[in-house]
Design brief:
Blueprint lengths: L1 H6 L3 E8 L2 E4 L5 E2 L5 H5 L6 E2 L1 H8 L10 H5 L1 H12 L2 E11 L18 H20 L5 H29 L1 H35 L2 H10 L1
Parallel strand pairs: 1-5
Antiparallel strand pairs: 1-2, 1-4, 3-5
Helix pairs in contact: 5-7, 6-7, 7-8
Length: about 220
């Protein structure tokens, strides 16, 4: 309360502890950058929103629930993203939430699938980008807000690979290992296609002896 009174931030994400470990938050007081609202607000307990700033979005966000998976499952994250993009947000180095027990979650998308499955995560990422595009297209942003939302959108884009890989690992560690193998193989050879085109890559594959190809694939 003292920090809020002195700084009047639009959004604050204090520390949250789950099962004895830091689950959300930072150990130092720092300002949120525009790529962090999702990490700062996915766990809702203890979050602080400035009423005057939030009222602008509280009547609008419910209207797009059916068309935006992020708003449907993480409305607080959508709100935090809007506030940080247009105002100020902070990581607060104060523990205000300690969770010792957890009940099974029944949160799901409107299609009935669990929110943490691969399809759900992918739809939520798309929802993040759609929300940013919708705010930009509104046309009533200041230059600072416009640049902030672009930074927020770029941050979401940078996290897509990590978020999807984490979801795959949670659902099936064996599938995640196959995913990692495919990713290494793709990025190892993609530069050949980038600079020389598909025809060169196909030629290299044809002239490389089959036993050698099998050995390479085994280790990558």
């Amino acid at each position: 309360m003292e920090f809020i009174g002195e700084n009047s931030p639009d959004f604050v994400s204090p520390q949250a502890e789950v099962n004895g470990r830091l689950y959300r938050g930072r150990k130092t007081l720092t300002e949120l950058d525009y790529a962090q609202p999702q990490d700062a607000s996915f766990y809702i307990s203890g979050l602080c929103f400035k009423t005057e700033s939030a009222e602008k979005y509280l009547s609008w966000l419910p209207q797009i629930v059916k068309e935006n998976a992020l708003v449907e499952v993480y409305p607080q994250t959508a709100l935090a993203g809007c506030l940080v993009a247009e105002g100020s947000g902070f990581w607060l180095d104060a523990m205000v939430t300690r969770q010792l027990d957890e009940l099974p979650t029944h949160i799901a998308h409107s299609d009935g699938r669990a929110y943490y499955h691969l399809n759900g995560r992918f739809e939520q990422i798309k929802g993040s980008l759609l929300l940013a595009d919708r705010m930009i297209s509104s046309g009533d942003l200041t230059r600072k807000s416009y640049d902030s939302i672009l930074l927020y959108k770029n941050g979401v884009n940078r996290q897509i690979f990590r978020r999807l890989r984490s979801t795959i690992f949670d659902e099936s560690p064996e599938m995640a290992r196959c995913f990692d193998t495919g990713a290494r193989r793709y990025y190892l050879f993609s530069w050949v296609t980038k600079f020389y085109g598909n025809k060169f890559s196909t030629l290299v594959a044809r002239i490389t002896p089959s036993p050698l190809r099998k050995i390479v694939r085994r280790f990558i």
